[in-house]
């Protein structure tokens, strides 16, 4: 077992009702979530939704207007950024350019007044951990972007922080390298068991790294759940559209009984959902479903919608079809491609058969 794993101090992070504004404009409102000791959670949402503001408040770089941040048993309100025991990694590496790799990694240890010999041993351990053994004497500019980011990770964990914060850590790297570093980070986090919060706007990154996601939109938390639950049971239309792909049909509740709800759609089409929705007749609803829950058929059946094929695109193992309905609403269907999969001609009218048991309904 690694030395650092023995000394890692697992703490639970609790964010309670954090609210912050810049110049009167609320950037985050009443944000609450927990990261259990040793857990990895992703804060996910579109640009400007307030993710970095939450992270900065946890790190102690800003003081939120309201709310509490509790790490372990300590409320951090009166604890300085430096004394919080938090390791941070930013997108732009932020290594000290005039210090060598080893000096960069040793920096937090020097601040903690760790004796020189112990510092040297810890730096060596960190270099092996991030697979940069032998690079200690180089300057940051003599490393690739991926290597620099590994040094940033090593520096963040060298001081055995009780919390690791990562702000878009791999945003500047190309896709393949990002994936490699994500796998490495996951391995490292599991080995060390550091409570970790990662901020990203990349849903694939969030889903591959985190056990739970905190979905933010316009300064508010919309849902906190596992990646699969967020995908399968989105609580809001925003979450449904932000995670994965979603077809959205705007319609009106026509009639409902105990077992079914009939939705009228533009162009005299309709859809029967096999359950009673919590809406009154006449309500506007947005019905959503994933492309993989749509099958294209040559003939009409119940719960199929007529649409014209615009394009079919092979994407690795699947085939994605884009269609347009008479009223201009777009539809997307995807299927697993086999050796005999037939690709229809663009312009063909097809019938999109929707698995209505997988549809979600939100206020329109
Ligand atoms: N220093 C600042 N002064 C004024 N407004 C700010 C400041 N920092 C952030 N904001 C505003 O607060 C809101 C939230 O910003 P924040 O950086 O937290 O979002 P984000 O989700 O991290 O975005 P991104 O993914 O683009 O980094 C935005 O509307 C932003 O314009």
Automatic annotation (TrEMBL):
PROSITE patterns to which the protein is assigned, alphabetical: ABC_TRANSPORTER_1, ABC_TRANSPORTER_2
- List the protein's name: ABC transporter ATP-binding protein
Mention one GO molecular function: ATP hydrolysis activity
User: Which GO biological-process labels does this protein carry?
Assistant: quaternary ammonium group transport
Give the species.
Rhizobium sullae
Q: Which GO terms describe its cellular component?
A: ATP-binding cassette (ABC) transporter complex
Name the residues that span the membrane.
none
The organism sits in which domain of life?
Answer: Bacteria
* Domain spans labelled ABC transporter: 13-243
